[in-house]
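TEACHING EXERCISE
Course module: macromolecular assemblies
Task: Read the component lines below, then compare them to the predicted structure of the full complex.
Student: A.B.
Group: 4
Components provided:
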Amino acid sequence: MKAKLTRIIRARKFATFMKLCIYFVLICVSFVYLEPILKMISMAFMSTKDVIDPSVDWLPKSPSINNLKVAGTVLDLKKTLVNSIWFSALLACAQTVVSALTGFALSRYEFKFKRIWIIMIIMAFIIPVPLLMIPRLMMFISAQNLLGFNFIGTPIPQILMALFGQGVNSTILILIFYNFFNLIPYSLDEAAMIDGASPKQIFFQIAMKLSATTVLVVFLFSFVWNWNETYVTGTLVRNSIELLPAKLNMFDSAFQTYAAAGRGNAEFRINEAYKMSATLISITPLLLLYSFVQKRFIQGIENTGITGE
Amino acid sequence: MAKKKKLTTYQQRQNRQGYLFMMPWIIGFVIFTAIPFIATIYLSFTEVRQTVLGFQITFTGLDNYIMAFFENVEFVPAMIAFLGMIIPYTFVIVILSFVLAYLLNKITFLRGLLRTIYFLPVIIMSGPVMYQLIDSSTYAAQMDTFLEFSDIFIVQMVATYSRPFARVLIDIFEQLSIILWFTGIPIILFINGLQKINPNLYEAAQIDSANSWQIIWKITIPIIKPLVLVVTIFTIANLGTFSINPVYDLIKKATENTSGGLGIAATFSWIYSFVVLIIIGIAFIIFRNREKVRRHY
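Instructor-supplied answer key:
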């Protein structure tokens, strides 16, 4: 009896030990995740002296916010921030609407070739974007020649693409809606139909009213992805609308023109601290967003249901 | 008889209403995805010149492909660099995210916080940010890393067998943070999948005196296997879309060259996509469930 008890105690101890090991590993790994971000934050506050000083590794000796100020001016922060926000929000709105419609169709109707369309939705995710960009670009240039109206350099092409469900990661957004609508009992629809509701009414009065949080999740995801997207934007909008990530991409050259125009002294050269400040500035809005609604983001991905059931 | 007629009208209504809701997506898919997909194949055999009147397309046969493989000095190395990146990265990402998800699933305290940290990169990760971070962290150090790492016994051991393989190994450890940044969504998917496994199965196995190692290999992994396929495909697609990808730069440069560059860009992107689709196909064959047809979502 006693031997058994000690064995149980030993097993318990072993279990706690294993748990501690797991915590140790996970916390170490989380440091690896955060290391670039922490490094970036520490770098952003370093003065020029600290950057050169080899004894400074993490904590700057003479912290300054000068870098942030300079990076902010080089990035043209006020303008690019506002531009980025309305641009991403606009695209996110368009994507949310079309994803909701498509998700609703897939979840509520048994139409012909539905399985084929689902496969096509997944294919749309797998096909690499550059493959599609060239004909798209040609299409828009031809259209603008035909109509005598400028498309390239405006957000119109991307809004059109988003509105017709071909924006960034549209597939994932559709799947989030599809799985959420699947959770709404079909009997609600039936009850509404018996009362004479049209499909439009069912969509707005039942599906949409129940899925306010899902709409928010999809909107936020779409916002973030559109914010971070630079390839399509770089091809279609180019430099005519200055967006924050695109500006960050050309930070080096932008900094040089700024430095040449401003002070000409030797110490005013680009260094890591300026670059990291610029990077920090460009991700701060997203970090703020994430800190408020991180639970929703994670739940959103959990609800895509691509885990298969 | 009347009943049958009613059934068909119901089906018709389903069709009509379903397609009505699907319509925007279908139009978009045809115009912005299906037609471009086919058009790129055609364009890759042509030379495209942008003139005042519009596009001048002349058929040139295999010239572009010959150019890409034999004449252009940048494309083949970029492709090889891309392959050398995507294949080891995908392996590491899938395995690491499974291990991390498995461990996260075992604990309760701090779980939310850790999950939040692991998911954070999904939000902030973008081409320029990655570029800045990779640039700052490794560029200066990149030159002598091989020497630096060659002190490590395992690296030495691998290097005696094959030097390129050791190089890949070093690359992985060097870029570990960046690789880990791609595990955000896979971890969430794996956790979700792990939680859906019926606990009765574990209990039954324990009663039959299986240890936890056996439980992982005989229960968890077989059940999670279809999900591995999803995660692999997702990772490949996701890795491909990042602008750390050297091929993207080339394609973009070729696209911006208006005097005849578009045809070449089409060739580049078609070869690139073909390779990516082949990799996805291989992943599909490896992880496919042979007993039954897997559902796609």
